[in-house]
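Recall the central idea of this unit: under ordinary conditions, the amino acid sequence of a chain determines the structure it adopts. In this exercise we apply that idea directly, starting from the sequence alone.
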Amino acid sequence: MQSKAQIDQSLRQRSDAKEIPGVVAVAATGNEVIYQGAFGKRDLAKDDAMTTDSVFWIASMTKAVTTAACMQLVEQGKLKLDEPIGKLLPDLASPQVLEGFDAKGEPKLRPAKNPITLRQLMTHTAGFAYDMWNGDLGKYLEKTGTPGIISCLNAALKTPVMSDPGTRWEYGTNIDFVGKAIEAVSGQRLDAYLRDHMFAPLGMNDTGFKIGDSQRKRLVGAHARGEDGSLAPMPFELEQNPEFHMGGGGLYGTAPDYIKFTQMILNKGRGNGNQVLKPETVALMGQNNIGDINVDKMTTVAPAYTNDVDLFPGMVKKWGLSFLINTAKTPEGRSPGSLFWAGLANTYFWIDPVRNISGVILMQVFPFADHKCLDAFAAFERGIYAGLDAGSGQKAA
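Accordingly, the structure predicted from this sequence is:
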């Protein structure tokens, strides 16, 4: 099929030209993988060619997995979406809102007007932020000596919220608390819970918080984009013995593994012969869960790690549990009501229930929302839809 060759050529050209170091892309319908390709190098400092089983830090693509796992416990009645979560997680029992800083530079805090709920955590409306996109939080961490979230220290979670819970969307550390909620009611550490209830049932045997020995041989190196556009290898690895497993961004994995997760969503909770979520749960996860609130542009205050993030500018965007939802058709061909998110080192996925198609594309480049990486993603996605339209779903591989 023509689109397979076109996608191959497009991704190979970008890798050969060193616009991106290397890339793995996989697309699938609910029941079969229709495209997979690997191009370029795992690490520009070494000779290893990229392979489809290469291991990436998938960062915030962890969020949807943690949230799906948490929804299993909601189904069992062990957690409730709209009850105050502070009963279960004492750190969230009396949230404080940061209202700027006084003349001496000390943080000004006041009690939040509303309690925090699990649904607010899952939808990024609880008020927690990331210091990459919120300068006040960065200033607060510095002033108080609070470690950054990437440290995976419990102390990193002791931050104020930036707005009253339930009043606005702000991307932040919320899903790390969802992970804590899973631990609190399941009695398992997050890594063990995800392994037993999500990864093993779905056959995602190459995904986890800890990089295994066989995975390390296939690990993709991180790269930094210079101001001149050039790429240089940069050392980056998450703490391998963390105080807490970062439910918001701690996973390492492969594209063939993650596509099994997206297929489970397409198949209304079923994957690898196992029903891991009820169909009505998956339906709820794919709906607008933030009402009249909209997903806003994220403006960087840490340009080494992220560019400004303004996806589908001009389009109203909503949030499910835990996905961005586009409300209109995208330029690449994605249907309205599709699900999408990404990871900080330029890893991306989308799930289009209307067309029964999903895709995963993984790179390992900082800063996030890198234009060359976004171009590669768009070319891949356009190619998949062109193939669907041409062959009404014939195989592309």
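The chain has a mean pLDDT of 96.
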